[in-house]
Write a structure and sequence with these properties.
three-stranded antiparallel beta sheet; Arc Repressor Mutant, subunit A; five-stranded parallel beta sheet; about 600 residues; alpha/beta; about 50% helix; 14 strands; Rossmann fold
Length: about 600
């Protein structure tokens, strides 16, 4: 007989599954299975199955369930001899089964060996044993056992044993330079232990070392809010140390094709900022001389990482430091103002807090509430020159004193690849992301053409390059390239359901469009990638008759980063490949009457 406990309860004789019968009968078996080889008293079985409300006929029912289970487990044995699997004890019953056939026993054996290897100074062998042990778990929450057994101490202890082993596994993954291997389990553990700061700090570190710095920063903000709301405390030293590392990044210079990449654990740079040193210097220079600087660009180009890096460099120029608000997590204007006053350490009713501080305010993802951000910024800056505001947004705030810096996608390969020349920035970033997911991966003469095609399909956007590279954990380069042919709603890193799909990321811009803007954008895929006003006017007729109105709508789409100005030309627009895909999907949904997905 084989028995699986670490998930939905499963029993088989040879290759034949055994149906354990109705719920209460199954609960009796589950209570015995949690302590294989050990006697369980009748009173304990009754409490496990019925809780505090034990029916009068509980003992009689229990004996009936045991008799039926024995028949199911030993169908070919005479009734009075069916005591080989469920045996009687002086006070109750016990389940007799070969420990090697029970996943629970195998799990404990593997974990014991892993900790022994760790004590012997063999961390990689220990990591492998922990991996095999945790792979046995099909449901760390033990949902079915929890439903079957009421207030079972054994079920809770078993859940804790998973948590303990998972902690050791994640810690070892970081210690041995294998963050990609432990990433999925670190995410599960963080979801199950939301108030454990060490668990959260390890998950943030895993995200950082696997090239997901933006997600790590977002996760830190969420954890901080939970700690404040649930416990009334600020993040402790472990979380603060990871946060400082995230906002004060360092990264190595670009490599060349065929140059070996450093191992993942040795890489400390955030991919979003690779090849952005010139932009960082330019924005920092603007912040020194202007009160309001807004970094605009298409979704996924790395605006958030850029403004946070600049804020870290500018920290010492502002007496009261830097205050960062992720507007994506704010519901409305009132909440934005309350959040700002809270971060500036003033009481919610004290308006003077805006007037006396010398602070750099960073508004990230401001496109969610552009008007509210503009009003708050004007209130903060009007009449005094002590503070400054740095904004990351898909569209500007349109205040008269605003200075705009456009962030472009990373440069793509230009013509034939020269293996002796520095690799194109987009290709370099993809290669580094890929090396984190698949250690040892290099961009070389054998794969560079395929990598360049992937980078072009990703439009050189760091977020999309990271999403694409993540699929190398389970697919070939050809498989990664084919991902771009599927619906945008299905394009997300594998095994990370918590990450938004590309469609969800892009839809945040679509939701800000007026009906006229959306109508025109949904038809842009019918135009060449680079087009002028005359082409758009022909496309718009008969819905937008006036060329001036078409020009206004095109300029608004460009302001919202759904179009880009074509470099080196006047009056011409470029629509990125992913935006054209989005345009096609919107038009298809409009044609079929489907809602925005």
């Amino acid at each position: 007989m084989r028995l699986k406990i670490l998930g939905p309860l499963q029993v088989s004789r040879g290759t034949t599954p055994v149906d354990l019968g109705p719920t209460k009968q199954k609960a009796v078996f589950a209570a015995l299975a949690l302590q294989p080889g050990h006697g369980v008293a009748v009173s304990e079985l009754q409490e496990a199955v019925w809780g505090e409300r034990v029916p009068a006929r509980a003992r009689e029912l229990l004996h009936t369930y045991i008799a039926r289970l024995r028949q199911l487990l030993e169908p070919e044995t005479p009734p009075r001899a069916r005591t080989n699997v469920i045996v009687s004890t002086p006070t109750g019953y016990a389940l007799r089964v070969d420990p090697r056939a029970v996943d629970l026993a195998v799990f404990h054996e593997l974990v014991g060996r892993a900790r022994q290897r760790l004590g012997e100074g063999q961390p990689r062998r220990a990591l492998r044993l922990f991996r095999h042990a945790l792979h046995l778990w099909r449901d760390p929450a033990l949902s079915e056992l929890t439903a079957l057994l009421r207030q079972s101490v054994e079920v809770e202890a078993l859940r804790l044993s998973w948590s303990d082993a998972a902690r050791d596994y994640v810690t070892l993954g970081l210690r041995t330079g294998s963050p990609a291997e432990v990433r999925d389990l670190a995410a599960q553990l963080a979801a199950r232990e939301p108030l454990d700061e060490q668990v959260q700090a390890h998950y943030l570190t895993v995200l950082e070392r696997t090239g997901q710095r933006s997600l790590a920063l977002s996760r830190y903000a969420a954890v901080r809010d939970v700690l404040r709301r649930e416990l009334g405390v600020e993040p402790g030293p472990a979380l603060q140390a990871v946060y400082r590392r995230l906002v004060e990044p360092r990264w190595p210079p670009p490599g060349r094709l065929g140059t070996p990449m450093p191992p993942p654990a040795a890489v400390g740079w955030p991919g979003d900022l690779l090849h952005r040193d010139r932009d960082v210097r330019a924005v920092a220079s603007l912040v020194r001389t202007h009160r309001l600087v807004t970094v605009v660009g298409p979704p996924g180009c790395g605006k958030s990482a850029l403004v946070r890096e600049v804020a870290g460099e500018m920290r010492n120029r502002f007496v009261d430091g830097v205050v960062t608000v992720d507007v994506a997590g704010v519901a409305d204007r009132a909440q934005l103002r309350t959040r700002m006053i809270d971060l500036l350490a003033g009481p919610s009713s004290d308006r003077s807090v805006f007037e006396v501080r010398r602070v750099l305010v960073v508004l990230d993802n401001a496109e969610h509430l552009v008007d509210a951000c503009a009003l708050l910024t004007d209130t903060l800056l009007r009449g005094q020159h002590r503070s400054a505001v740095l904004v990351a947004s898909r569209e500007p705030l349109n205040l008269p004193y605003e200075v705009i810096r456009r962030l472009w996608p990373l440069a793509l390969p230009d013509g034939d690849t020269d293996l002796a020349a520095p690799v194109a920035p987009a290709v370099d970033l993809f290669g580094r992301y890929a090396a984190r997911v698949r250690p040892g991966f290099q961009v070389d003469g054998g794969n560079v053409a395929l990598v360049e095609r992937i980078c072009r399909r990703a439009d050189g956007l760091p977020l999309v390059l990271g999403y694409a590279a993540a699929h190398l954990a389970v697919e070939s380069l050809d498989g990664v390239l084919s991902r771009f042919d599927g619906p945008l709603a299905r394009f997300r890193p594998p095994g990370e359901d918590g990450r938004p799909s590309l469609r969800a990321v892009l839809d945040r811009s679509v939701r800000t469009l007026t009906p006229a803007e959306r109508w025109l954008f949904a038809r842009l895929a019918a135009l060449p990638p680079v087009f002028d006003l005359a082409g758009a006017v022909r496309l718009a007729d008969p819905y937008l008759h006036d060329p001036a109105e078409v020009a206004r709508v095109l300029n608004r789409l460009q302001e919202k980063s759904l179009l880009q100005p074509e470099r080196g030309t006047s009056g011409r627009h470029r629509c990125l490949g992913l935006m054209r895909r989005l345009s096609t999907e919107l038009l298809a949904a409009e044609t079929t009457g489907a809602e925005l997905g």
